[in-house]
Amino acid sequence: MTYLLIKSLHLLFVIAWMATVFYLPRILVNLAETANEPTVQARLQLMGRRLYKFGHNMFGMAFLFGVTLWQGWRVFPTALPNVTAGTHWIDAKLTLVAILLAYFIWAGRALKRKAAGGNLPSARALRWINELPVLLLLGVIFLVLAKPF
How do residues 37-86 score in pLDDT, each as one tens digit? Predict the structure, then answer.
């Protein structure tokens, strides 16, 4: 039961974090498209800052529960199973998660750069960049469900 509770909490926080990963670049697109509307820009900046902070908190919780799932069997061998023993799908999954985290940090820095008066890529480029996390998440989901290696 402990394993299922920790796994459920991990999934909850992953879903919340992924919502921010998907939506933060959308805010960047809107910032790029509303360059001549200072009121809208201010509102989008505020939304972006709050969302980025929320995303960091959600990633932190997902990370804690994920590490507990992955390595918790070392501390609580009777309560948590070793779910990755002898397999390497977890290495590929963690690589994709690291890329998603780098993407999230890039989006946050782009938001901060825009707030400081810097430029963003074009709205069209941001729309294309916005598709990357969907593909990465598909890879993560496949690896977790199929455990191909």
Answer: 999 999 999 999 999 999 999 999 999 999 999 999 999 888 899 988 88
Q: Are 79 and 1 in contact (CB under 8 A)?
A: no
How far is the C-alpha of 144 from the C-alpha of 129, rounded, in Å? Answer: 24
In angstroms, the CA 12 to CA 99 distance is: 20
CA pair distance 48, 113, nearest whole angstrom? 12
What is the maximum alpha-carbon separation in the chain?
A: 60
Residue 64: the pLDDT is 98
Does the model's pTM come out above 0.85? yes
Tally of CA atoms within 13 A in the half-sphere of 113 that contains its CB: 12
Q: What is the C-alpha to C-alpha distance for residues 69 and 91, in angstroms, rounded to an integer?
A: 14
Sign of CA dihedral 25, 59, 112, 39: positive
CA distance 110 to 116: 10
Q: Single out the residue of 62, 67, 99 nearest to residue 80, CA to CA.
A: 67
Which two three-digit tokens encode residue 41? 């820009």
CA 63 to chain centre: 10
Contact 126, 29 (CB under 8 A): yes
